[in-house]
Specification:
This protein is of the alpha/beta class. The chain is built from 22 helices and eleven strands. Strands 6, 7, 8, 9, 10 and 11 form a six-stranded mixed beta sheet that branches. A five-stranded parallel beta sheet has the order 2-1-3-4-5, with helices on both faces. β1, α1 and β2 form a beta-alpha-beta unit. α7 packs antiparallel against α8, α12 packs parallel to α15 and α19 packs antiparallel against α20. The longest helix has 51 residues. The protein is elongated, with a radius of gyration of 39 Å. Keywords: DNA-binding, Phosphoprotein, Transcription, Transcription regulation. This is Helix-turn-helix domain-containing protein. It comes from Cohnella silvisoli. InterPro entries: CheY-like_superfamily (IPR011006), Homeodomain-like_sf (IPR009057), HTH_AraC (IPR018060), HTH_AraC-typ_CS (IPR018062), Sig_transdc_resp-reg_receiver (IPR001789), Tscrpt_reg_AraC-type_HTH (IPR020449).
């Protein structure tokens, strides 16, 4: 509701205006009076007033100077000026000073009531507009916060082909999300792949660091250019540079920016990463270009902290006439887990094939021979062949080049041995890459292993393996290694009667204080306390 202040040096006039009108009927719940300007000022220090009725002619300071004072104080009060003289200059000064209305005395009470009601309506309208402005501003701030998520979701839908990238649909989305593009413009996709963290990070720490990488990419790579950095559905960072259709693609400049970004990330964020630079392409080609960049990243097993493109990892055609060796002779070696000997024989043959010029027919025949060897050993040991099926299904990838085949065969032999060593430890329905990684971890957890070493064991890019492992298991590779080590440490303390220092070393913790810290995080007690309770 509203309050009213009446200022007049004549007491009878004050009484008449206070008592002659039903103020509550128009929303006025409190009426204040003052006989002069000084009293009015004192009252305004302690009371909130919405509408003022002020007489111009008063002893001392007059009503016009009071209106000017209200303006100087920034008090948003509606004012109605009363005067006994019909002078134009008075009316002009009153309106200039912010007066809402100008009325001659003696005042008709009904007209005065309507004038105050008009002031209240005006005040109410202004306050509603202010509330709308505040609400709009709050929604605007919320939109600014939500915009990156909306933009990210939009681009993920585009690259996953869930949105048809027609010009009309894109223009609508660009307007909604504030993206400075039209449906006929272009983008430059740059895939950012973290290969290795030099400090151990849990899942939350990785998210925080990836946010830092995202902001750094905006500052170092994008700079003054329009664009956004998003995270796709698998967790990989993708920088999209927005380009007008006729703007030239400055390949060397973008390569230089990516190189500067990599150096900064090496220095400040303690990680190794590579950037996969796409071309300036129409929006309709973005899904295809993105998949090509992912393929380059996945197949990059040699380059680290590099800027690569879709032409970076070319493949050589094969055309050989070699005679395939008898892999039956290799089966006994594989049964005895003679990994080095098996791979040595295989490598010798492949090196000869490379020297003489490739041959797709011979390579395909060799592929089936290696598959026969893998399955024969698995069946002979009475073990399931299911975990090898996905690996065996990679025929098309394996026979595309001699080097591809070498990588596939090395991985296949290693996985065969690891699966037999870890049989029964892993039962969840994970992909073959994750299963093979788990098998490697179970076999080597007591050693100094990290994400890069695990990825090398399955011949997969570390960043790709990290995303896949976390997606399927809900844990980072570091967290999984820690859990395997902790399970083993507890087993040693439970059943083998090992000392704490022995359990620490045999579980992959050469640092005893760190072992105690991690053990307490897992089990709520130190290893010494745990062992004491078990002995009792």
């Amino acid at each position: 509701m509203y309050s009213l202040l009446i200022i007049d040096d004549e007491q009878y006039a004050l009484d008449g205006m206070v008592e002659g009108i039903d103020w509550e009927g128009i929303g006025i719940t409190r009426v204040w009076t003052a006989l002069n300007v000084n009293d009015a000022r004192k009252l305004l220090v302690s009371q909130s007033v919405d509408v003022v009725l002020v007489d111009i002619e008063m002893p001392g300071e007059n009503g016009l100077s009071f209106l000017e004072w209200l303006n100087q104080q920034g008090l948003r009060i509606k004012s109605i000026v009363l005067t006994g003289h019909a002078r134009f200059d008075y009316a002009q000064q009153a309106m200039k000073a912010g007066g809402q209305d100008y009325m001659l005395k003696p005042v008709d009470l009904e007209e005065l009531k309507q004038a105050v009601l008009k002031a209240i309506v005006s005040l109410q309208t202004e306050r509603e507009y202010e509330q709308f402005e505040q609400l709009y501003e709050s929604y605007k701030q919320m939109w600014k916060v939500e915009r990156p998520l909306l933009v990210e979701r939009f681009w993920c839908n585009v690259i996953d082909n869930r949105i048809s990238p027609t010009a009309a649909q894109l223009n609508t989305a660009f307007t909604s999300y504030g993206i400075p593009l039209t449906g006929n413009d272009s983008v430059i996709p740059i895939l950012i792949s973290v290969e290795f963290w030099h400090k151990e990070l849990n899942a939350q720490d990785e998210e925080i660091m990836e946010y830092a990488l995202k902001k750094a990419a905006e500052e170092i790579v994008l700079q003054e250019e329009d664009g956004d950095v998003i995270r796709d559905g698998t967790g990989i960072l993708l920088l999209l540079v927005y380009q007008s259709a006729n703007k030239p693609f400055r390949s060397q400049e973008w390569r230089a920016r990516c190189e500067a970004y990599i150096r900064s990330c090496n220095e400040y964020f303690h990680c190794d990463l590579s950037c996969y630079l796409g071309c300036s392409i129409p929006l309709s080609e973005l899904p295809t270009e993105y998949k090509q960049l992912l393929a380059v990243e996945r197949n990059n097993l040699q380059h680290m902290n590099a800027v690569l493109s879709t032409e970076s990892l070319g493949e050589r055609a094969l055309n050989t006439r070699n005679v395939v060796p008898s892999v039956v002779e290799w089966i006994p070696l594989l049964e005895m887990n003679k990994e080095r000997e098996v791979l040595g024989k295989l490598d010798n043959y492949l090196s000869q094939m490379e020297a003489e010029g490739g041959g797709s027919d011979a390579l395909e025949t060799l592929y089936f021979g290696v598959v026969y060897m893998l399955l024969s050993v698995q069946v002979k040991k009475g073990l399931s062949t299911q975990m090898l099926m996905n690996l065996i299904s990679e025929q098309n990838k394996a026979i595309r080049s001699v080097e591809r085949f070498r990588q596939w065969a090395q991985r296949a032999v290693k996985v065969s041995i690891q699966l037999r060593n870890a049989e029964g430890l892993i039962t969840e329905p994970y992909s073959d890459i994750v299963l093979h990684s788990m098998a490697f971890i179970h076999a080597h957890f007591a050693e100094d292993i990290n994400r890069g070493i695990i990825a090398n064991s399955v011949f997969i890019n570390p960043a790709y393996l990290s995303r896949l492992f976390r997606k399927e298991t809900g844990k980072t590779l570091t967290e999984y290694v820690q859990s395997v080590r902790m399970d083993h440490a507890r087993t040693l303390l439970d059943n083998d009667g090992k000392s704490v220092s022995e359990a620490s070393l045999q579980s992959g913790f050469p640092n005893l204080p760190y072992f105690s810290k991690v053990f307490k995080q897992y089990y709520g007690v130190t290893p010494q306390e745990y062992r004491t309770k078990r002995i009792r």
